Amino acid sequence: MARYEEYTRDEVLEIIVRARGLRGANLRRLDLSGADLRKANLIGADLRWANLRDADLREADLSAVDLRYADLSKANIRRARLFRADLRECNLSGANLL
Q1: Percent of the chain with pLDDT over 70
Q2: 97: Cβ–Cβ under 8 A, 6 or more apart, which residues?
Q3: Which of 63, 53, 4, 57 is nearest to 31 (CA)?
Q4: Which carries the bigger pLDDT value, residue 77 or residue 16?
Q5: Considering Cα of 46, then 49, then 51, then 54, what sign does the dihedral take?
Q6: Is the pLDDT higher at 9 or at 29?
Q7: In 3-state terms, what secondary structure has residue 16?
Q8: Phi, psi values for residue 79, rounded to 5°
Q9: Residue 41: which region, alpha, beta or left (left: phi > 0; alpha: psi -120 to 50)?
Q10: 17 CB-near residues (< 8 Å, 6+ apart)
Q11: pLDDT digits (tens, 9 = 90+) for 25-35
């Protein structure tokens, strides 16, 4: 599994945009608040405790993503694929799910 702890937030966002995702990446505790992650491929990524507040995740593939304890408050998750995603204890308050 790739590790991205040594990169800055902006570097990780640039990688996501260029590669259209970070499949299987370890993004634990990363601050991605307000990030534009539309159509990103994050299949199998570890986003435990990540800050995704106000993030745009429309049409992103979040299949098998570990989102335990992540902050998804006010995030836009419309049409995101969440097949087998682990959403236990994550904060979805105010999130746009429809």
Answers
A1: 88
A2: 77, 78
A3: 53
A4: 77
A5: positive
A6: 29
A7: helix
A8: 60, 15
A9: beta
A10: 36
A11: 888 999 999 99
Residue type, 96: N
**Residue 76, φ and ψ in degrees, nearest 5:** -100, 110
The model carries a pTM of 0.84
What is the DSSP secondary-structure string of 74-85? T-B-TT-B-TT-
Helices (H), 1-98: 9-19
Which residue, 68, 69, 12, is CA-closest to 36?
Answer: 12
Q: Which residues, at least 6 apart from 98, have a Cβ–Cβ distance to it below 8 Å? A: 78
64: its two tokens: 């098998």
| 24: nearest Cα among 77, 65, 69 | 65
- ∠ CA 35-37-80 to the nearest 5 degrees? 130
